[in-house]
Amino acid sequence: MPTGRPRRRPGSRTGCFAVLDPATGEVFDEAPDQRPKALDAVVERAHASWRGWRADAPARTAALLAAADAAEAAGADLATLLTREQGKPLSESHAEVARVAARLRYFATLHPGPQPLTDGRPVRSEVRWRPLGPVAAIVPWNFPLQLASAKFAPALAAGNTVVLKPSPFTPLATRMLGSVLSAALPEGVLTIVTGREPLGARLASHPGVRHVTFTGSVRTGRTVAAGAAASLARVTLELGGNDAAVLLDDVDVERIADRLFWAAFRNCGQVCVAVKRVYAPARLHSQVVEALAHRARTAVVGSGLDPLSQLGPVNNAPQLARVERCTARALADGARAAAGGHRLDGPGYFFAPTVLTDVPPGSPVVTGEQFGPVLPVLPYESLDEAVEAANATGYGLGGSVWGTDLDRAGAVADRLECGTVWINHHGELSLAQPFAGTKESGVGVAGGPWSLYGNLRPFVVHRPEEA
Ligand code: NAD
């Protein structure tokens, strides 16, 4: 099995790195391995294009709407390539492309107008907004297109230009999207750069960049923030999560089991806001374990290109190794696999959907982010104990409460320390909502108008009431 970070392979052209199909573990294409030095010209061009792009809001709206149409028209090709390099079922790739188009349309027509200020004095003051300049966007491999659009759609709508770097595990669909959108956008307004580290580190610390917006792990997020400190660029970080689902004692287990299962296992568990821990009342614990384990045993795992597959492979070898490590550690600590617990035989990075019980609360699969198809189910005696355990990690991205009495569930939702809490479902995000991790899950607010303001800076114009 290939291991380690994306690398040059015998057969890759000079200046390129290999891209693997996670369903086979084989190389199927390559992408340009741009060197950090190349960013100077790219950022300079983004700066030069900014002048025209920022000046004409109606033209921006028209271009972003045309970009949405172009993404949609290329939907089938984009989705197939995305599944090929990322592994997810084709239906999920189609949904991801649709989300790109929807997001472009949403932001195309969102315009921040001037906001009058009143503080009782006879002065008319209003807040107006200016774009920041070239934005550096860095994204991971779990939702390459969706997360790219979450960066570039609001940044472009606000009048900035963007240099975007996808993960070297999934560079191809993003490159294709960049080329598709270039038919609608002026040159230099959106540039996709691909390459292995230190390309991202250089982009985050580039002196010509005015906003660094990053999605990825907490560890890399810290490095990115430190890099951006050199130029005092604005920093937005959307980082990891360890979302807890708290089941209340009036929950109807059979009724919610499908929803709960897919909230944990969609995209093979590689979702920042996947359910990563379940807390079940002790009385219902074995019923919950069995309901989830049954679904894990019967879920169809296979290549994302096969229309029957419900779960694809883990995206890459290092991530598969991490999932194997944390599962093995939990089993060694005394946990029991009610379903799965191991890699699947054969080529590709497939891991059996796994439900763990009897997991010690301090096990890394509970305290950390497994980011794979492995779900621990933990029993609790009192609700206070469950809420305390749910909040007892450094993460604070999402969480959910499941039960029949919605007022009671709502009261428990108030006690979860995270940016989004769902009741009786988990993971759905509105384009219009603020998406803001608390604690180590993020810095800044993304989503809806908040994303737009995150890409703008206010300035104030004062004038006396009477001229
Ligand atoms: P990662 O942090 O390893 O990589 C993210 C991106 O940063 C990639 O493009 C990578 O090439 C780049 N990178 C790596 N080292 C860098 C450096 N020193 N400087 C600048 N860039 C660098 O994360 P990953 O493994 O690709 O993604 C999984 C993580 O992303 C999980 O923790 C997941 O929860 C998180 N995530 C968060 C959200 C969110 O919205 N909060 C969404 C999706 C994924």
What does this molecule look like?
This protein is α/β, with parallel strands linked by helices and 467 residues long. It folds into two domains: 16-239 and 440-461, Aldehyde Dehydrogenase, Chain A, domain 1 (3-Layer(aba) Sandwich), CATH 3.40.605; 243-428, Aldehyde Dehydrogenase, Chain A, domain 2. 38% of the residues lie in helices and 20% in strands. The protein has helices spanning 38-55, 57-73, 75-86, 90-108, 144-157, 172-181, 199-204, 218-229, 253-265, 285-298, 317-332, 364-367, 383-391, 406-413, 448-454; strands at 16-21, 26-32, 115-117, 123-131, 134-138, 161-165, 190-192, 211-215, 234-238, 243-247, 275-281, 336-339, 354-357, 374-380, 398-402, 420-423, 442-443, 456-464. A seven-stranded mixed beta sheet has the order 12-13-14-11-10-15-16, with helices on both faces. Helix 3 crosses helix 4 (90-108) and helix 3 (75-86) packs antiparallel against helix 6. The mean pLDDT is 96. Bound molecules: nicotinamide-adenine-dinucleotide (NAD). Residues 138-142, 147, 165, 167-168, 197, 200-201, 204, 215-217, 220, 223-224, 238-241, 272, 369, 371, 397, 437, 442 line the site of nicotinamide-adenine-dinucleotide (NAD).
CATH superfamily of the largest domain: Aldehyde Dehydrogenase, Chain A, domain 1
Total E-strand runs: 18
Large-scale geometry:
globular
Main β-sheet, spatial strand arrangement:
12-13-14-11-10-15-16
Question: What is the second-level CATH architecture of the largest domain?
Answer: 3-Layer(aba) Sandwich
Named once each, the bound ligands are: nicotinamide-adenine-dinucleotide
Strand content: 15-25%
Approximate helicity band: 25-40%
Number of helices: 15
Determine the N-to-C terminus distance: 75 Å
Which segments are poorly predicted (pLDDT under 50) over 5 or more consecutive residues?
Answer: none
Supply Rg.
23 Å
